[in-house]
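Hi everyone,

Forwarding the result from last night's run.
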Amino acid sequence: MLKRKPPVEVAGYLNRLIFVVDIFSGKWGCKWYSVINESGADEDVSP
């Protein structure tokens, strides 16, 4: 499997590499997802 670079970081979001399994086709792998950073303070985010 080829490694990909993480997506561009956006203020207020975190990039996570998540293991995904498709139960219908039996395929598996990792995908990059951007998730909301709910635990971060506003001071931690650069404009």
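The chain is about 0% helix and 40% strand.

Cheers,
N.
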